[in-house]
What we know:
mainly alpha
Amino acid sequence: MASWSETSVRDILIAIFPHKISADISFFKKIVPVLSSFLEFAFYANLQKNGLKLIGVIKELEPLMLNEVEVSLKGSLEEKLYNLGKEMGLDLSSLDDLDKLYAFVDRFETPEKKSSKNNIIQLSVVKKQKNNV
């Protein structure tokens, strides 16, 4: 954490989080306040000497991060899933409610889809074994 820089924070907020975390925009809106509080604590605990400066950076980057999330979600299956969650009254900024949403959708997944997922995994294993022979 002591080696965190403006560049690394920028990369995480703009290039990594929006593409590696699958969540609704409301989840991402909580990242900056949580990260700001953490960096403030780290600064006053002498764990991150640039903590206060990094807080300013992440606050400036928040609109870019949220835009990146909106662009990546637009028209996607995830967007439809999160819209369903909103219609169900779930708080999509909550990990617990996201888990509930995924569990709900999983109940309606057909056995054919579940078995086809297994077949895909089995095919990839078979291909890998063939390549090793």
